[in-house]
Predict the 3D structure of the following.
Amino acid sequence: MRSLLLAATAVLVAACSGPPSIAVGPDPADPAAPVRATRYAPVFAGEVDYRPVEPRSWIEQNRAATPGQGGR
């Protein structure tokens, strides 16, 4: 019975304590904490224009696709 009373007292005392503080990095509330520099990235960087274009002549298409000079 006495060990049960000691265990119950230990559990109650442990439950009244706060959670342990976990410090992984610098304190975010510290105004002198080092901060990584931000860089500007424009929203339209690398934008590709996908608007419709007029079709090229099929002769030009064939010449561009053939290997070598003049297709021969």
Summary: Helices lie at 2-16, 58-65. The mean pLDDT is 84. The radius of gyration is 36 Å. DSSP finds two helices and no strands in the chain.
